[in-house]
Amino acid sequence: MHTDLVAALDIGGTKIAGALVDGHGRILLHTQRATPAQEDGDTIMRAVEAVLGELTGSPLWSRATALGIGSAGPVDASTGTVSPVNIPGWRDYPLVERVSAATEGLPVELIGDGVAITAAEHWQGAARGHDNALCMVVSTGVGGGLVLGGRLHPGPTGNAGHIGHISVDLDGDLCPCGSRGCVERIASGPNIARRAIEGGWQPGPDGDTSAAAVAAAARAGDSVALASFERAAQALAAGIAATATLVEIDIAVIGGGVGKAGDLLFTPLRAALRDYATLSFVQRLTVAPAQMGTDAGLVGAAAAALSRQSSATTAAGVGG
Q1: In the structure, how many helices (H) and strands (E) does the chain have?
Q2: pLDDT for residue 193 is more than 90
Q3: Is 3.30.420.40 the CATH number for 5-113+295-315?
Q4: May I ask the CATH class of domain 126-290?
Q5: What is the share, in percent, of the chain residues with pLDDT greater than 70?
Q6: Which pLDDT belongs to residue 21?
Q7: Which residues lie closer than 8 Å to 113 by C-beta, 6 or more apart?
């Protein structure tokens, strides 16, 4: 059995990546294409099929036993469809059916990208050895996923753990999702930058208004930039504490571009967490930076495909 591989797809608004991954999480073959995100659905699917073509054309392909997909969301694993916010051409797009057809009926497991990164961090990264974990991606958006009782918990549609759309400010700004004061509306990279600019922060001569530029200014002591990061940290702490109180996680892992800000984010986050995570059973909660890097989506999609296989074999009364 150990010679078996799984195929993985990581689909986002910028790139579509594919890989063949072994049972130890090692990527043996990697390929990617730019996502034609503004094109129609079938044009986007042709880019996916081009990635799959490179995988199926490999001599290793004959060993692939399943395929995992981590996609920008929302996804609906119960129907095999995706409607990614940042890929307008796909609305209720039958991705599982189309991928299955392109791979001659290989079993396909679909999960949201936040859940995929969670699977990777639990299998190989910062949440390894933790049976109850929340993993978050804080970048252009804020996504996440849960591990409960030692197993990935994607929920019925594959979106469980989507912490970016917990409201942490009841009368806060309207979020594009339709709610108010969401974690994402306060803590995502573009919103950290927006708040700094609204507060009077001036970008340097290069005109860079990214969250990374705000982080550089904060490190140099700019008080408005610092305040924007502190507000983001507070929103993240409130969302993490709410999650820990609800399902008893013992670690929160934070990745994504904003997570790379290091102490600038983690120091005020840990301080704010002490204010919000006050009950005895959440006081031991730790916060750690993600370890998996850019291949996390692929490794996590592979992990989901592998765990689906192992539960199928167990259910059939074979192995374990």
Answers
A1: 9, 12
A2: yes
A3: yes
A4: alpha beta
A5: 96
A6: 97
A7: 10, 11, 12, 70, 71, 72, 73, 137, 143, 297
